[in-house]
Design goal:
By secondary structure, the chain is an alpha+beta fold. The protein contains twelve helices and 23 strands.
Length: 450
């Protein structure tokens, strides 16, 4: 379908003035991410299109996920309603449809000709061990249930047809891969590189094991995702994808990889990870290589936005008047969570904190504020903490809780201290906030202020 691809979104972003195009030849080794980093220093977060990558015929697109405004654009809604629209559509599971062919297979490169190094794969950070594919959505199939599972993983390029994969210990894919290990069989995989941003939001949705993330994508699109069969493995991939890598992971085949710049903005340690053997590459005739800038807001917002839905739903079960939740970039869109509630009872904020901490093991700090505080503004939350928080009564700690192994404060692998902060006003006896009447009726353009 016409609007289910990356290029339709790119056209929309261009029309909205959201795209910066670099026509000068640019190296994928540090030079491309350096451009984005320079823009970030200027507090600018556009989509960046590199028309002439050095060493490759494919243009490169990056930084697509670096603003909530564009994520909202991907769902066809306003930024203020992004979280609510995502939550509602995430629950509209829509089964994909299989079509006989798609543009993702206009070019087919068989195994003997596969060369991953021909792709403009980016080396992002100074001490990264090499180039990494960072915007690959990998599909596998549970060998017992036959249900698909899709997720995003980083892939370090090792050789012309070999690359690494990091699978988190608690992830669904690790659970599925262990079934193949038990059987002593290779796990077929197919990796989509380049699609509409709503596709990526869908495959990163936090849904229970056994739900096909392609169905979540269909809910976000408002229509079934079109799939095609891959050429060499028994899997299905989006027909409108830019590039697809087909292959398998062999039990016991592993390779040392990293360091790598993680979403924490810090380098992760070296580790031994499984290896993906690529058997075929298919792509559009005029394919765009798609990248997600590791260790920057592009990666943080992508991964954090879809997590907000399950947090909100769990908090709402204990606090029905929750207004919204947000994990800000200042906390890497993982470690810090802000919650806005319409407070009805003393102690209600603490219940909301407990629900949030139970929702997502990444969260380390939870701050609950009143509905008049803008949780999308760090400064507003800090002001609430400065003027409404009584630490001796409104802060609690959970020591030795399970966090995330990439948290630099974690001990014994993943143990952290979690903190709950109630920055809501007491229901009575608190001073009234100053307000200036008529502010909402001021039209600055009428006063010559642009």
């Amino acid at each position: 379908m016409a609007n289910q691809d990356l290029r339709s979104f790119l056209q929309k972003a261009r029309q909205a003035g959201e795209v910066v195009e670099i026509k000068k030849p640019t190296s994928p080794r540090f030079a491309m991410p350096a451009v984005v980093a320079k823009l970030e220093e200027m507090q600018r977060y556009p989509v960046v299109y590199f028309a002439r990558p050095e060493g490759s015929e494919m243009p490169v697109l990056t930084n697509v996920f670096a603003s909530r405004r564009r994520l909202a654009m991907a769902l066809g809604c306003g930024e203020s309603s992004l979280n609510a629209v995502f939550r509602e559509r995430e629950d509209r599971l829509t089964k994909p449809v299989l079509v006989p062919s798609g543009p993702c297979q206009e070019v087919v490169i068989p195994g003997a000709e596969v060369d991953l190094k021909s792709l403009p794969v980016i080396t992002h950070n100074e001490k990264d061990a090499g180039p990494y594919i960072t915007a690959g959505a990998m599909v596998v199939r549970d060998p017992e249930t036959g249900i698909r599972n899709i997720g995003m993983y980083r892939h370090m390029i090792h050789d012309r047809n070999k690359m690494g994969i990091h699978m988190a210990e608690t992830s669904h894919i690790t659970y599925i891969f262990e079934k193949y290990l038990h059987k002593g069989q290779p796990m077929p995989v197919a990796i989509t590189i380049g699609h509409h941003p709503a596709f990526y939001l869908g495959v990163l949705s936090i849904v229970p094991l056994g739900i096909d993330e392609y169905e979540v994508v269909g809910g976000l699109f408002g229509e079934p995702l079109e799939l095609v069969k891959t050429k060499t493995v028994d899997l299905e991939v989006p027909a409108a994808a830019e590039i697809v890598l087909e292959g398998y992971i062999t039990p016991g085949e592993e390779h040392l990889e990293a360091p790598f710049g993680e979403y924490t903005t810090l380098y992760g340690a070296q580790r031994v990870n499984p290896v993906v053997t690529v058997t075929t590459i298919t792509h559009r005739a005029d394919a765009i290589y798609f990248d997600c800038l590791s260790g920057h807001i592009d990666q943080q917002l992508l991964g954090g936005t879809s997590r907000l839905s399950v947090i909100y739903k769990n908090v709402r079960a204990t606090c029905p008047t929750v207004r919204d939740v947000y994990m800000p970039p200042s906390g890497c869109c993982r470690f810090t969570c802000y919650i806005s509630i319409k407070k009805r009872h003393e102690g209600e904020a603490k219940n909301a904190m407990a629900a949030a901490l139970a929702s997502d093991p990444f969260i380390k700090y939870v701050v609950v504020v009143d509905e008049d505080v803008n949780i999308f503004d760090d400064g507003a939350v800090l002001k609430a903490m400065a003027t409404r928080l009584r630490p001796e009564e409104d802060v609690f700690f959970i020591r030795g809780a399970k966090g995330h192994p990439l948290d630099p404060t974690a001990q014994k692998g993943y143990l952290v201290t979690k903190v709950g902060i109630d920055a809501t006003k007491p229901l009575s006896g608190y001073p009234e906030t100053v307000r200036i009447p008529g502010t909402d009726r001021v039209n600055l353009e009428d006063l010559g202020i642009s």
